[in-house]
Write a structure and sequence with these properties.
Elements (H helix, E strand, L loop, with lengths): L3 H10 L13 H9 L2 E7 L7 E7 H21 L8
Antiparallel strand pairs: 1-2
Length: 87
């Protein structure tokens, strides 16, 4: 339990600064424009030492992608990790 705490803190604090959305002063006036604002992040490529590529999406698209990823992780945790047949 104690070893998982630093990992959890690291994961929580490692969210890219560009991905953090600041609340507007008037939420009803600029809510739509905030969700349509483009945000670019560097995305690491697995298996490449040369690093990352720049990916640009709207705030709404980033939120949807993260929601889907969280659902996939939760689904795997609930079902357990199943091995492919013959593996």
């Amino acid at each position: 339990m104690l070893t998982s705490l630093p990992i959890a803190v690291l994961l929580i604090t490692s969210v890219p600064v560009a991905a953090q959305v600041q609340e507007p002063a008037s939420p009803t006036a600029s809510k739509k424009s905030d969700l349509d604002r483009m945000v670019c992040e560097k995305e690491e490529q697995i298996g490449s030492r040369l690093g990352a590529r720049k990916v640009c999406k709207t705030v709404r698209e980033w939120q949807e992608q993260r929601r889907i990823q969280q659902e996939e992780v939760q689904d795997q945790q609930l079902r357990g990790y199943q091995q492919a047949p013959g593996g």
